[in-house]
Write a structure and sequence with these properties.
This protein has 2 domains: about 150 residues, no CATH class; about 220 residues, no CATH class. The protein has 17 helices and 7 strands. Helices cover about 45% and strands about 10% of the residues. The protein is globular. With about 400 residues, it is α+β, with helices and mostly antiparallel strands.
Length: about 400
């Protein structure tokens, strides 16, 4: 089978001029692993993860354990590719039509994780077909044919239902039982609490189920109605905030609760507002992947830390992703975070989750809550009220 793999890819490295190893059968790494700063019992650093292939990052995210970080890192180095391109990226851009079809046929279901990767330019393999000179020489029909084959393959594995809640005890015992910090335990407990409350409150999302299951016509119509409801809700919340002294996020959260609908943005806002109301003792921020269409919360990030380098956010910093139904250390972000993308083909739209690529995906902060500042403002407002009385 390994020989057939090599045949199907027929020396893509030669075509691209890149030194890339595909489907290696030998396990001996050519890299000096021992000299690299990787702890045996700790998350792989963000700066090192940024050099790995997005496919391996995705695979690690599915079964990540602290105690095997060194072993996983060795495997990561063995599959590093140029400019974030995996074998399917390179095949789509440089291979013949027959070679691409053969690769898809040989790999079968194993091709699926490769279809949703973004390279360092943010493109999945399907979007590189138009750059293939061999295909272009055969006419638009050949590109159209291959696009039609790859389009239904560019999809994500099913995620947990929106109604599924997080078991905080199970989460802690499986991932973080080695952490003794009471502050971390507090952050984790509160994050899980508000995420579960949020997922219980929001009944429908126009994006969440779009990456889970194939639709029937009835399901498609239902999702269109939910999309329209969310767009209308956002407009009303925006205009209401213009004529109110309340925080716009509080108004948006109230509208989402009343209508029981929302996408990742609404869920992140609800987590943010809920933690504020509960007097949360750590900071909470609303983060957006600016070129990945996903919104989530970051808890207890160190002030002044580098926005696009989670390894600097602090040992107690957590990612609280209500839409995905997960809470994890910020240092694990390259392994676990997903961006939301879509591809079009003949007036059809397919949504999928892409593994986070630190070379392409960047962050933006929308809201920040600091408990000390909040308490100070409340005290000052209270004193002003007393003075007026």
């Amino acid at each position: 089978m390994a020989a057939k793999h090599n045949l199907a890819l027929f020396s893509l490295a030669t075509l691209t001029g890149a030194s890339v190893n595909f489907f290696r059968t030998d396990k001996e790494s050519k890299h000096p692993i021992e000299s690299l700063p990787v702890e045996k019992k700790g998350p792989i650093s963000y700066s090192i993860m940024a050099t790995g292939s997005a496919d391996e990052i995705r695979m690690l995210a599915e079964d990540y354990t602290q105690n095997h970080a060194e072993k996983e890192f060795k495997e990561l180095l063995e599959t590093t590719t140029c400019r974030g391109n995996n074998s399917l990226h390179l095949a789509a851009q440089y291979n013949t039509p027959e070679g691409i079809v053969e690769l898809l046929t040989i790999m079968g279901e194993e091709i699926l994780p490769l279809t949703t990767q973004s390279n360092h330019s943010g493109k999945p393999p399907i979007r590189l077909l138009n750059q293939n000179k061999t295909l272009a020489s055969k006419g638009k029909e050949e590109i159209d044919k291959l696009t039609g084959i790859m389009f239904p393959l560019t999809r994500s594995a099913p995620t947990s239902e929106l109604s599924q809640l997080i078991d905080s005890n199970e989460l802690f015992s499986e991932r973080y039982s080695h952490i003794k910090s009471e502050h971390f335990k507090y952050n984790l407990k509160m994050a899980v609490l508000v995420i579960n409350e949020t997922r219980e409150a929001i009944k429908k999302s126009s994006t969440h189920h779009a990456i889970n299951l194939p639709y029937s016509k009835t399901k498609q119509d239902e999702m269109k109605e939910v999309t329209a409801a969310i767009i209308s809700m956002r407009r009303r919340a925006f205009f209401a905030s213009l004529f109110s002294f309340k925080d716009a996020s509080e108004i948006r959260a109230r509208y989402a609760l009343e209508r029981e609908v929302g996408n990742c943005g609404e869920l992140a806002v609800l987590v943010y507002v809920s933690l504020k109301k509960k007097g949360f003792n750590s900071s909470c921020e609303i983060f957006e992947i600016t070129n990945g269409d996903h919104v989530f919360n970051v808890i207890d990030r160190l002030p002044g830390s580098k926005l696009n380098d989670p390894s600097t956010w602090g040992e107690n910093a957590l990612i609280a992703d209500a839409w995905s139904g997960d809470v994890y250390l910020a240092s694990e972000l390259p392994l676990r975070l997903k961006a939301y993308h879509f591809v079009n083909y003949k007036q059809k739209e397919q949504h999928y989750l892409a593994p986070f690529n630190p070379y392409f995906h960047k962050f933006k902060i929308h809201n920040t809550y600091y408990p000390d500042v909040e308490k100070k403002e409340r005290t000052e407002n209270s004193q002003c009220t007393i003075s007026r009385i």
